[in-house]
Amino acid sequence: MSRASLSGKKSKSIDNTGFSPNSDAAGRRLINRDGTVSLRKKGIPFYERISIYHSLLRMPRLYFILTVFGIYTSLNIIFATIYFSLGPDSLEGTLLADSLSERYLQAFFFSSQTLTTVGYGHISPVGFVTNVVASIESFIGIMSFALVTGMFYARFSRPEAYIRFSDHFLVAPYREGKALMFRLATTKNNHLTDVEAEVTAAIHVTEHGKATTKFYQLALEFSKINSLGVSWTVVHPLDENSPFSDFTQQDFTAGRLELMITIRAFDDHFSNTVQQRTSYIQQEMVYGARFLPMYEQSKDGKYLHALLDKLNDTETVTWQH
Amino acid sequence: MSRASLSGKKSKSIDNTGFSPNSDAAGRRLINRDGTVSLRKKGIPFYERISIYHSLLRMPRLYFILTVFGIYTSLNIIFATIYFSLGPDSLEGTLLADSLSERYLQAFFFSSQTLTTVGYGHISPVGFVTNVVASIESFIGIMSFALVTGMFYARFSRPEAYIRFSDHFLVAPYREGKALMFRLATTKNNHLTDVEAEVTAAIHVTEHGKATTKFYQLALEFSKINSLGVSWTVVHPLDENSPFSDFTQQDFTAGRLELMITIRAFDDHFSNTVQQRTSYIQQEMVYGARFLPMYEQSKDGKYLHALLDKLNDTETVTWQH
Amino acid sequence: MSRASLSGKKSKSIDNTGFSPNSDAAGRRLINRDGTVSLRKKGIPFYERISIYHSLLRMPRLYFILTVFGIYTSLNIIFATIYFSLGPDSLEGTLLADSLSERYLQAFFFSSQTLTTVGYGHISPVGFVTNVVASIESFIGIMSFALVTGMFYARFSRPEAYIRFSDHFLVAPYREGKALMFRLATTKNNHLTDVEAEVTAAIHVTEHGKATTKFYQLALEFSKINSLGVSWTVVHPLDENSPFSDFTQQDFTAGRLELMITIRAFDDHFSNTVQQRTSYIQQEMVYGARFLPMYEQSKDGKYLHALLDKLNDTETVTWQH
Amino acid sequence: MSRASLSGKKSKSIDNTGFSPNSDAAGRRLINRDGTVSLRKKGIPFYERISIYHSLLRMPRLYFILTVFGIYTSLNIIFATIYFSLGPDSLEGTLLADSLSERYLQAFFFSSQTLTTVGYGHISPVGFVTNVVASIESFIGIMSFALVTGMFYARFSRPEAYIRFSDHFLVAPYREGKALMFRLATTKNNHLTDVEAEVTAAIHVTEHGKATTKFYQLALEFSKINSLGVSWTVVHPLDENSPFSDFTQQDFTAGRLELMITIRAFDDHFSNTVQQRTSYIQQEMVYGARFLPMYEQSKDGKYLHALLDKLNDTETVTWQH
């Protein structure tokens, strides 16, 4: 069977995916497994391409902490230098000797006590200018810690779906025929309701001698479930409504099928809408397998146990036909 | 009448509830009265199953306060130990004697004054290392209090529906026939608008000799009301469109009927969408009763009084047929 | 014409308003002009009827500030009493004399300096117990100020529509017939888009000798506009689809018509959904008037001026028929 | 062709844009390029027209910082004046001399140390009244910094689409005919999904000898895309369904066509709905051009590069007919 049989089907290819039909001749993955897009922006200055807010929220936790601590230290160095440059009489205190380096350290510690508003007072500002600078520094301290702590909390409380997807998608038996399937579960103690799945397939074909990418929104057995308990197996039946109804394993491989997946849900307890995206490429397909159950009753019968380590457990099937 | 009569009805059973048709042979409740699911996750390490954010938001208030206070105390112990280990000259102060225990306590109190940024200054850091540690501690204090106070406020301001459901659901007279009914009211000084109800029934039947659970989305008299004033009686008419149209009391009992309920609404004053879930099991059914009114006019006629203690008030009815 | 002509119309009365058809014999207004409902809850203890969060957000600003200041003072009194009761040696400081009242004041001021974490240090805690209490107080201070300042900011930033409604609704000429109309405008520097109106009419009729209230969702000329510029005149045509198509002024009066209005919109600049509700009763009807324009071009032609003081400007019309 | 040919088309003009059909005789732009409306409100007092929250969020960053710093300074001046007026014995401290100006400065610095709760303690309050004032000031400090820092963070974290629109809209070849087109891209490291476009056209015509403005919601090739990768060219085909199907360049010019555009999307990473608006006027039309591609493969084929500097790159086309 040739892939040219894609045309003339009931299901129409779509063009509104935001991807270009001819942008992917090189065989890149369109969407990464973590849901990000393999896209880099160029042509305008760096600072116009960066939303500091987005950057601070997306960077790894360790980078974030180092960045924030770096800002804290930098501000202290700046203000310490100012206090230091105001001369030895600008700060009063009993702790450190009079050497230049110790004077600078004293200025540094006074700065940090001012910036955090801890203000022990064992070092204190003397004179008009020093007092004005300290007054401004404590103001700046409050304002910048507001941003930093706000970001810190926003990172911590960011609505997340915590969905884990099976490593592979399957071509599995389904009713009298076959279906594309993948499985997902929430791994954490969150509970998702009104869970919606949207699966877009990208398939690379040659039309009129030109390589092009076609996109299909795949019809699902269920595109929405009320509640995500143990797990959800998302199913696209390979029936007469599917653009891939008579595809063989070779057709999928040759067409470098990619499934682009968006899951959207409502966090039951906290009234947030959460979204997670991922994709599967053809190399992640297992042709001829079915998922095994991933739950069991607790011994007392009171609980259902979701066995998250079995998310990827499948058994091979042999086709009857 | 046998429960086999479920099949062949107009209403089709649904499969997208997120519950498995064969997961509940043991007769567990699918959803608890407080809306949670009787589900436990296993098979992956504890820390991968826990969203600290969700845990902190869902734990009882007392636990939360104890947890936070425990963290505060732990941080103080850690930093007190550091200050203590830096020797007797690391802190300057006049309050406590020189015994080891009192030195430790002084270090502890200095730590707490630094962590909270209260910084009285009657104890103050001496020397380079102590000052650096104090500088870091006040930074850590600000950052961790940001998380803790953010969580505290998030718990306090969490959008909640404050809906109370009647203890039982009824099979009550309705027009010429019968209907399943339950009643709900908001108990607090919040006002809900655009209130939607979604009721899914689970019924346990034996098909082809195998115990299975069937799910039905129940048609409601009204699935949405503009505004939740005194109360709302949610009604599923047991008419020809119901999967239970000719069920007797015994059929409901034998089928271990469970009603799974989701209420979603818009908080009028604060522009939040709120959601609350609950369920009724067959033991919570009263067959042959109707709800009594739960409001009265105030004496001056200016107010309507919602009588929340009458939420469960019913009267027994005897069926004419 | 008798009001009995309500029945048999095309438009069907609705029952899902959340109001009871027989709860309003006394002629109360169902919804107040500020959108609240004339409803009081009874029958359960006070503390179960109150959401502290909702109460703090809805109380008038002055009450809020007084409440917060009252809590602050109370906490200080409690802790001052503890410090005072720990004896004259529990606090060290130079400011006040040794009289009992001055000792108490010193304890009070020390408490306030601890609660706010200002911690000057001119009064400082002495001894184990006092230090522990101070350590706890500064912790409580941070936690309770988190709630209070969170509420304060939430009140300040609460999404609001800032819609002003015309004082009266009109029965005005419309195309070849008549229409019910009212007008609204945003008064502040916010910009609403995707503005939706929902108008429910309540009319009191006597059916089979029994006073009852019927509810109708009124069809509007436009139920949604893209953008709320100068103002929006919401129009319900009194045509053959209206339940009031052949009502006379007397019919409206006798039926004690009440219009219950919900406006929902999207705040253009801040991505909030906002909602505002109001109602008109029959006494607020002007029969035979039309709204006058409430805008003018600025002299340089660059701006359109919304003349908000003309929101209520109408002119009387005499019906041709 | 005369513009009178607008009437009698399939596409019906709409009236629910919130703009008045006769408000724009002077030829103003209805919506500015930054999405704001050229509207000023009059007729009610200034303080009733201003939402302080909206004003603080919308003002330029420098103004905001100056405003906040101004408030901080003003509060310090007010409290400094109070402390100063309480006499030379109200504050204890060692820093400044006894001249009146230095006493005032000391009061000012004490105030700032109290307001920010830095509280060094080298200046400290003496006596009942001063202590009460300081206690109130630290309370006011915490409350007002809560507002100010909340605003500061809200400005920083405000959901934004960061969409850049092409400078011009084109009349370009499209299939067998022509289409109106403009192009947009996100410039920052945010990723938008479920992006919707809504385009309303305003055209000024003369009907029955009277200048009037007609509005049309334009049908788009796609009104929604799944994901906004490199860019999106929004297309309104000038086919038989368009109100402008047989418009010439002169017709667009004479009718002073204005396109009013709303883009709404879901921020993939942070679960916010974001909205951005703009408009094009007839002077920003290029008749007979098409957009050039604005992406390229990275050399290693792993990334797609969005070339944001080519957003406006077009090439001229000559019409075949």
TrEMBL record, chains A, B, C, D:
Look up keyword Cell cycle and say if it applies. Answer: no
Q: Which SUPFAM superfamilies match?
A: E set domains, Voltage-gated potassium channels
Q: Where is this region: Disordered?
A: 1-27
State the organism's lineage: Bacteria, Pseudomonadati, Bacteroidota, Cytophagia, Cytophagales
| Stretches with biased composition (Polar residues) | 14-23
Q: Which UniProt keywords apply?
A: Ion channel, Ion transport, Membrane, Potassium, Potassium transport, Transmembrane, Transmembrane helix, Transport, Voltage-gated channel
Report the domain of life of the source organism: Bacteria
UniProt name for this protein: Inward rectifier potassium channel
Sequence intervals crossing the membrane:
62-86, 132-154
**Does DNA repair show up as a keyword for this record?**
no
Q: Where do the Potassium channel domain residues begin and end?
A: 74-154
Gene Ontology process terms (BP) = potassium ion import across plasma membrane; regulation of monoatomic ion transmembrane transport
Q: Where in the cell is it found?
A: Membrane
| Domain Inward rectifier potassium channel C-terminal: residue ranges | 163-318
- Record membrane topology: Multi-pass membrane protein
Query: What organism does the record attribute this protein to?
Result: Rhabdobacter roseus
For this chain, one GO molecular function annotation is: inward rectifier potassium channel activity
Which InterPro entries does the record match to this protein?
Answer: Ig_E-set, IRK_C, K_chnl_dom, K_chnl_inward-rec_Kir, K_chnl_inward-rec_Kir_cyto
Q: What is its main location?
A: membrane
GO CC terms in record? monoatomic ion channel complex; plasma membrane
